[in-house]
Amino acid sequence: xxxxNDMSATDATDATDxxxxxxxxxRTGPNEEDRAPxxxxxxxxxxxxxxxxxxxxxxxxxxxxxx
Length: 67
Prior knowledge:
Elements lengths: L37 H29 L1
């Protein structure tokens, strides 16, 4: 008994006979959908800078306290 999911070699059509066309055209560059929104990018940048300032301040406190 054979069902629709059977991919045996006894099928009448051979996969090598049919040329495969790409499902989507090749993309040449980044798309606007691939980029994060500008507000998100700015917020992440501010958070990163802020975290580095806090880490530098803590490093400075331990440096002064240890000296």
